[in-house]
Write a structure and sequence with these properties.
The chain is α/β, with parallel strands linked by helices. It contains 33 helices and 21 strands. The chain is 43% helix and 15% strand. It binds adenosine-5'-diphosphate and magnesium ion.
Length: 860
Amino acid sequence: MKGDELALAARALEALIPPLRFAVKDGFAGAERLAGFGATVRGAVERARSFGAADSVGLRKLVAEAERFDRAPPSERRRAVARMVAHLGALIPLPPELREAARAARLEPERRPAAAAAPGGSAPAGSAPAPPSPREPEPAPAPAAPAEPRTAAQREDRRRALRRRLAELPRAHPAPRALLEERGRETVEAALEFWPKAYQDRARVGRIRELALGDEGSVLARVVATRVQRMRNGRPLLKVSVADAEPGSAPAALELVFFNPPPWRLKGFAAGDTLFASGKVTEGFGGRRQMSQPEVEKVQPGDSANFGRIVPFYVGPADFQHPALRKLMKRLCDELAPLALDELPPEIRARRALLRRGEALQQVHFPPPGTDPELAGARVSPAFRRLVFEELFFLQLVLARRRRGVRAAPGIAFDTSPAALARAVAPLPFTLTRAQQRVLGEIARDMGRPEPMNRLLQGDVGSGKTAVAFAAGMLAVGSGWQAAMMVPTEILAEQHVRTLAEWLSGSGIEVARVVAAARGREQREARAAVASGRARIAVGTHALLEEEVAFERLGLVVVDEQHRFGVLQRARLMAKGRRPDVLVMTATPIPRTLALAFYGDLDHSKIDELPPGRTPVSTRLFGDSQRRAAYLAVRRELERGHQAYVVYPLVEESEKTDLADATSGAAELARTFEGHTVGLLHGRMRTEEKREVMDRFRSGELHVLVATTVIEVGVDVPNASMMVVEHAERFGLSQLHQLRGRVGRGAARSHCLLIAHFRRAGDDARERLRAMEATQDGFELARVDLRIRGPGELVGTRQSGQKLFEVADLYRDDAILEEAREEALALVEADPDLSRPEHAAAREALVQRWADRLSLAQVG
Ligand code: ADP
Ligand code: MG
């Protein structure tokens, strides 16, 4: 898809932002009043498609959600809106307040039907799954995997079979079906992709006498007698005495105990029945051995989903719901999984010794005998390997193809001669570090060539990326082109404009500031200056992407702090020029695996050295109750004439409360630091207010700046030597590292004090925050974050509410990622358009199944 089409598609979706904004206003008051919104969404999606947006899962989800919204009662609309915002956020950038409101709504407890939430045996009557019905016919024996279809139509048939809704399956038990549907698994394929979280080995069904007290195991037993007693609360207590099934064994060796069983279970046992039972053997009254709340199943002819094999457990369903769920899964595995298409090119599957997709799906749910349940539970098994490989492979394929496409088309060749380079860096008031010079050399080499540059510049906080971007911009300007630099916040735009204008003073080169807020004369003039070409450099927020922002001759696009931007933005800014060169910059350290996974299509440069004169920031962790000690340290710094930041988070919970936190925090701190001036800065303030507060802090008039995370990126005030972070447990490590990077910019020794509320935080919090104390190395911190919190934090897709991978885990699967990458690159070399018949399925899969990930891969 070409850039300008993308821009149109994105714009079609942007039409949804105002109504959604209306919907979330005043605690979602608007959501209940929106009429016919479903139709609006469908219309927008249709338009986006007509402009060439791929028919992605993301778009389809949006439509599905819109349909649900139309039917939803007012009480459900809030969450429906929140989900629409999430889906939309994965496709286009959204205003922060919209994202925050939706995130808060999604975090509310889900109103689930009572049955799903009720624990084990105390489920109310009627809500538990019915007993395995003896009338239910045996599942057909697994058919041999059908041959891979040769024509597109045949493949489409097979895909359709897997896209069937569970609701259309004949004779599917409603209870497990509802369990899956509640989790959004409404089709056969989605159900098959509901990965187990753990396994239990019940391959061997033993005898009662082989089990000792404390053992967990499964047995084959015969019912001797049943008894119903009453518990003190009047509920029934069912005791079933069982003995080893084969004749001659000692009778009544074990008692199965069920607390408050549902009615069908109360009547479900008769003397002489043979059962499988699984559970832990404990000592009951009078020394009797018992299993309480065991899983049981009457022995029936044929294959059981629950005994005599390694059985899966899933996240969510209660133990007692598992037998019926496994039965349904077993049926899907037997009857439908074999129809799953093998979209991986066959030569790759052979070379990498991978299972077929159908086999993998079957084995993921029901591992073959001999599988180690622990390893399978850790998702290290041949079945998972195949599924992980596939997921990573297609992402890499998308990236490899894009890279090739980018390389192929002609762009601009700038003048990058030594003389031009010298002119580009001349305005800087310092000499570049060696690392900066090297990186600028790499950029200049790209810019000098006619192929468009597509480069990722990584450099730790404070490493001096701005100067490098500036020099690149000057190369563009020197060749008669314009440069645009997009940054995530107005404060940062303001700061960059100030810095650049200072460097350029006297040169006659004009810098325009293009921001969303502060409409009126100033912004009209800025836009006019960019359009006429009078301003050679434009620095701005996502306002740069607006339709009415046009460039006279855009040659270079720089995206700063790229992880803050959404999916289609890079493309949209690019579309304002004709194949401009692109430089994306990030201080969020991206470990190699992540960089490979998400930025595989970019060339990399890295600034691995800080400018001279930096002092390491000493970091200390404080508990909530130690705040006084922390503030004492702040006061000492203030007394030395230095300045301090105090940062409050603005995440998850209600924006209002957090704001109140920062506001009351500021008032409180004004008292604590009597004799010093305290200012407040937050995202809700008007541009001029923010600018004024920042100015006063920069000039030293304010000593303490209390802020929400609006200062997270890029603010540069060298005299500030103290950073205090409240509720540090709520931040990701990379974010904390960014915040810490606000200090340590001058010569003074700097400090970062993290105040954490451990009681409310998860177990991981302490471990993560200790890492902040232990290291200054952003890359090490990113690795820790990746291990503990997963990749969403790092690439900034957390807002989108979308999971990055269904099954892959970049930390665990880095070796598979390398293999998948090799294969993807080789495939694109050998058959760039995937036009060979054996690659047809892969080509279709890219569009049909992986389009969604494709959009994620465009982050940056
Ligand atoms: P970041 O990479 O985090 O965006 P900045 O570009 O904001 O870092 O640079 C941080 C600070 O270091 C700025 O004050 C900048 O002027 C200064 N700086 C950058 N490069 C050099 C250099 N080579 N020598 C001295 N100071 C530098
Ligand atoms: Mg920066």
